[in-house]
Amino acid sequence: MSTLVALARAQAFASGKAQPIATVRHLHVSDDPLVLIPLAMAGEANAPLAAMIGTSLEKPRLLVVSQPRNRDERFAFTAALAGELLPYLESFATETEAVAVDRGRDVRYRYVDAPQVWVPNPGGVDFLRLLGRSTRFRRTDGDYPVPPAVPLLGQWLTFLASAAEMPGSALLSNTVQALGMHWTTGQSAAEDAQLGSLFAWITEGAAAAREAENGPVAGPATDPGFDNKVLAPLIAESSPELEEVLRDLLTPTWERMWRSLDLLRALPAGARVGTRWDSDRDTYSAFVEHLAEDGAPQPRRDGAVAAASRLQRLENAAARYAVQRAFDDPLVMAEHRLTGAAFAGVVTLANPDRIDDTGKRPVLRPRIMVATTEPVRVEAGTNLTSPARPSQKAKVISVAPTADGCDVLLELSGGMGRKLVAEPGSVPAVGERILLTTLSEAYRPGAAFPDPADTPWTHGGPPAAAVTSA
Amino acid sequence: MSRVDQLRGSGPRKRHNARTIAALTGNPGCTRRAVLDAAGVDKPRLAETIGFPGSFGQSRFALARGNAFEAMLKADDCALLRSVLSLPEGRYEDLGEDSDDTLTARHTRTRDVLADGDAGLLDHPLLTLSVAGQTVFLEPDLIAAQRGDVLQVVEIKSFAIVDGQAESAAVSSAAVQAAVYVLALRQLLGDDRVSHDVVLVCPENFSLQPTAVVLDVRKQLSTLKRQLSRLASVSSLIDELPPSVTFDVAQPVPALLESLTAVEARYAPECLSACELSVYCRHEATGATAALGRPVRDALGGVATVDEALGLAAGTVLPTPEQTEAAALLAAAARLRNEALSA
Prior knowledge:
The complex is a heterodimer. Chain A has 13 helices and 17 strands. Chain A has helices at 3-15, 71-90, 122-135, 149-164, 175-182, 189-192, 195-203, 206-212, 224-236, 242-265, 273-293, 304-328, 330-339, and strands spanning 19-20, 34-40, 48-54, 61-64, 96-101, 106-111, 117-119, 172-174, 183-184, 342-351, 355-356, 363-364, 367-372, 383-386, 389-402, 405-413, 433-437. The longest helix of chain A has 25 residues, at 304-328. Chain B has helices spanning 3-8, 18-26, 31-38, 43-49, 60-85, 103-116, 168-189, 218-231, 234-240, 253-262, 278-284, 294-299, 306-314, 324-342; strands at 91-94, 120-123, 127-131, 134-138, 143-147, 150-156, 197-203, 210-216. In chain B, α2 packs across α7 (168-189), α3 packs across α9 (234-240) and α7 (168-189) crosses α8 (218-231). At the A-B interface, α1, α3, α6, α9 and α13 of A face α5, α12, α13 and α14 of B.
């Protein structure tokens, strides 16, 4: 936790009101989202008890398993869930747009929009991942056949759950995390994990949050007291009241999730949220294509090469996401200023026409002097970037201490046009307030991984033929 | 009547199990928890009496599944359990009995049976462990499997292992509990007789089919030993408490609250899921930075209270010499935050 967020938490505690920790929204919020609240049966390995699902606040659909230990009812539930979820997920695979690839030499197509599924909390994501695991290998023939929609649902849930691991992806989002990214409460993170309490802090304040604490849970686990006193007798008697009881249990969470979406929509979107959603649309388009072409279920475990390259993609995405959030949001950038990874100052000198002709060809290398009162923890030779001009590099030439801070001399390259005279406005002018950071949006090339057939013995050697039984 | 019994008052002593000992080591800095547990005080009742009930309990569905899984493994003279552990047919003895009167006798029996070292399975052995200067009886839910010269702890758990992975919180708490058993067995038999590799028997994937995995609990063992040795000083702490201190729930509430105040707690948000008294401690810790979580406290430079942290950030509180660094950090954070929010 950064000191800035901790300070906001302290302020929230003292004022009894949640405090903003972001000035823009860092997450794409779809105009047409689907909300899903899964509820699990305690003790069992991923046995669904109920789910509330729908694409509008007014029309929640409640699915209930009246005997959660009955295998047939379980798969009937999964089939019903597939009946609700699959049409929504597939409804975006219609209109496409062309995207230039390979420097304009080729084009590929992607869908103009993609689905966005919301669950209440990270536990909901885990539940869907396991539900995907338990259904995607099911056979539609043989001894225990299931409807064809069941294994397909399993593949979609697995796809969504693995997308949710990708930092910055918004295909499967959870409300607790989304709210916690933009507001901080005056309680601990452990207490924030409960949606009711977190939501009450943000909308009403501390007192309401304490009251909401003992309210209905947001799943997927139920409260043991509820299990013992309410649920057990209803299930034992196969009571028809079960559905009504579960509806009452889930409705508060349902309403909070939709109101949370409104809260998030009210924030202006960050400048780089759109590009992240673009890559979500790419991921979605690729998966739709995979289902249409091959349709093999995702393996139970990644092979060594696939796991290594996935890990690298995740690391790159995490680094990129952190940089993008800082570039989009001055409040996030402030955290980096506090740790010395960024500093703000005023341009005191500028030589926008400076030409470096020591090389083969003369190149435009303007220099500027920035005076700052903030601590500067960079050395000469470091390349810095300013969020206002992300395509321009600023190389530190020297750092000279002054009475109340220091003067930083920088040499600029890039982002000034192709001529030997800088485009107007591309070089910071004297008097301009500028922010410089060591964070960089520069492209990180992926590492080269061997073909799976050439997996080295250190990593288990080439994998045996894939085993696809459940 | 010993001082410890006086503290507890009229209620019966709460028995320890591996879970309570594991929890005890979860927050070793908390004197209140150590004293209450050492005295065997009924904490749920105490919390309810003073008006801060916690909601702890286990779902009967979870219990039913756990029991069904265990019964299935132990059916037909533990046939399934033996096949999972690849043990030959042999002795099986259940030493369990839910009774306080026979504790000593059962412990003696456990010691005798374990000492002779015959191969086979021993269910519910009654062990003792020295906790906070007191010898407590442990009613463990474990099976000790004798293989050759070495005794191995077998724990049956009902959480599922899916594709070789299980919920990490469940596994780590199972490992700590198993470490408690290993430690207690080693105190009884000597270090080299009991293996630090414990066997966890869990349902595999989404079925009830059992699978066995081996966990190395050496790390948990050394943590446990260290923390138990720190708890050893609790008995001297109890002796130093003023005679008026009591946790007898028959006492009036103000007296109980006063007694609680006399024993210092170290509240952290993690307590909420582990300790029955946590709701009261949270109430008591209101305004402390630690109540917002340890990362928050650390990020605020270790300043103890929220008011102090905000005062240092605003420059309205003069920092003590140790606080100068924290104060500078907080003031810089406040300046940056205001700048970003007012832009």
